[in-house]
What does this fold into?
Amino acid sequence: MPEVLRVENITKEYPGVLALNHVSFEVQAGEVHTLLGENGAGKSTLIKVISGVIAPNQGKIVFQDQEVTFRNPMDASRLGVSTAFQEEALFHELSIYENIYMGQIPSHMGKIKKSKMIETSSDLLEQVGIKGVNPKTLVKDLNIATRQLVQLARAILNEAKVLILDEPATALTPLERENLFRVVEKFKKQGTGIIFVSHHLKEALDISDRITVLKDGKRMITTEAKGVTEKQVVHWMVGKEIGDIYPEKKVNRAEVIYEVNHLSLSPHFKDVRFQLHKGEILGIAGLMGCGKAELAKVLFGHLVADKGSVKINHEEAIIQNQRNAIDNGIFLIPDNRNEALYLSKPICENVSLPAIQNYSKRWKINKKKEHQDVEELAKRLKVKAVSVDYHVDTLSGGNRQKVLIARGIFAGAEIIIFVEPTLGVDVGARSEIYDLIAELSQNGRSVIVISSDVPEIVGLSHRVLVMHQGEIKANLDENEISEQNILNYMVTQSKNSTNEMAV
It folds into this structure.
C-alpha cells in the first residue's frame, strides 16, 4: 500500500519536558496504524503536530510525497488530514450541522445554503450511527459519545486522506462501538490512512494493521498487529510486566453513613434507593442512557431531583447545588474531567480551590502553606509534574484525574463519587488510579464508582448496583459480583429482589 503521510525526526520540547524525541512514524493508504503508550508517552503531542495544532521544534511532515507545514488544523483539514480529538473540538453553543460544516460553509452568490447543510449533515450522522437526532440540535445538549461521532461525521465531509481518531470509542456503548468500527472499515476500503489512538489494548489489536508504541517521547517499536499479545504491548509501553491491575479487595464494611431514599428525576431515573457504608466501594453499572450519569449529577447537586431524599450520618441533607454537596462531605469527579478543571491555571490552584478559605487570614492567602500542602499531596498521589506551579493543561489524562482526586481530599470529602474514573487513561495510570480508590476506602472514605466498564466495576467494587432504563435492577453482594451477572441485568428487564433498600 502506498504511503500517504510520514513524519521524520519530530521533536517537541516544553519547559522541563521533552515530549517527543526524534520520533518518526508513517501511515499507509487503507490501513489502521495505532499509536499506543502510557499517558505522557507522547501520543497526544504527536497527533497534535500531525494535525497542525502545535508546531514541532524539529523534524518534518511529508503528505502525499510533498513536505508540508500545517500552521493550524484548518490547513491540515484542507489538505485532507482530519482529526477527531478525545477532547472534542466542537463549539457547544452551535448546532450539529454548523459544527460539521465549520470552515467550509457552502454558499451561492453570497447566500448560505442552510437547507443543504442540514440535509447533508443528517446523512452524515446516519453514516456514523446517529439516528433520529435533528442536525439543528445544539452540541451542548449532546452526550460525550454523540459529540465524538459528530467529529467523525465532520471528517467524512472533509473527504479525509488521513483520519486521526483519538480515543474515539472511549465513551461509546458496545453498539456505538460496533457502528464506529464499521465506519472505520468503510474509510479503509476507500483508501484512507487511519491513525488510531486507544488505551484499550484488545480493541487496538483487533482493529489495527500495524501498531507503534511510544514511551517517554520515543518510538519503541513499530510492528504488524497480527500475532502481537496484550502482554507484549504492556511490556513495550511500561518497560515491565503488569499483573492484576486491580488492588486486593479489603472489605471493611462499617456503619451506614449515606442513604438515598426514593430518588427520582423524570425521565432519567425513578425510585432509586440505596445505602453506602463507611469505607465501602459501591459500584453502579449500566449502559449509557440508563440514568446513572444523571444520578451522579443529582447526588452532587448539579441537578435537583423531582422527589426523594438523602441522609448523611442518619440526618436528612438538602443537596440542591454543588456547594451544598461539598459542605456535606460529598465530592464528584466527573467523566469529562476537563470541564471540572481550570486548565490554564496551576495544579496548586486547582487542588486547593474548595479549601482556599483554610489558607486565608485577614483577606490574605498564605501561599507558602498552600503550596507546601498541595505539593505534599501531589507527591503522595504520584502526580507527574515538574512542579505544582505547572498548568493543568500540560498534564496527561491520568494526571488530571489525580489532580481532581487531590481536590476531593482537600475538600475534606468523606464520600467521593467517580464517574467513568479511567476514561481515556492508559493501563499504567489506570492501575495507579485503582490503587488510589482502594486507598481512599482503606482510609475510611466511602466511594461510589459509576462506570460502563464492567471489568472495572467487578475489579474494584465491594458491592454493585446495576441500573437499566432508569431503575436499579440488581444489588449484588461481593460473592455475586461477576461480569456475566452484571451484563445480564444491564441489558435485560429481569430484576432481583430490590424492593428493599439496597444495603
Observations:
- The radius of gyration is 23 Å.
- Residues 494-500 have pLDDT under 50 and may be disordered.
